[in-house]
Amino acid sequence: MEKESPPSSPHNPGRQTVLSELEEIVICAHVIALANTYGFPTNKLELRLSVKNYLTRIGRTVTEFKDNLSGKKWINMFLGRHKKLSMRVSQGIRKAKLFAK
Q1: How far apart are CA 21 and CA 24, in angstroms?
Q2: For residues 67 and 15, what is the distance between their CA atoms, to the nearest angstrom?
Q3: Taking the model in full, what pTM does it have?
Q4: What are 54-81's pLDDT values in tens digits?
Q5: 6 alpha carbon, distance to own chain's centre
Q6: Could you tell me if 92 and 79 are in contact, meaning their C-beta atoms sit under 8 angstroms apart?
Q7: pLDDT reported for residue 52
Q8: Most buried one in 13, 65, 88, 96, CB count within 10 A?
Q9: DSSP bridge partners of 69
């Protein structure tokens, strides 16, 4: 006798995310705007601090985060949900190349 698979759900498996979908979209837009404005990528620590600042500004406390600072696992899951964001390491530029015409 074959087992029937459960009906598929339109929702993602697992627990609910800490931030709402809209909040995550706002954070993504902020990170992209910073990268476009200043021309350098955001690293994971800066992203964590941006999330903390956002939560502080709106007066929200997330009990899953220590002092409202997300953990490394949360950041990795966040980046997995938002594929258009990628973490890159900035490379140093030689002074000669910086001022070259």
Answers
A1: 5
A2: 22
A3: 0.68
A4: 999 999 999 999 999 999 999 999 999 9
A5: 32
A6: no
A7: 95
A8: 65
A9: 66
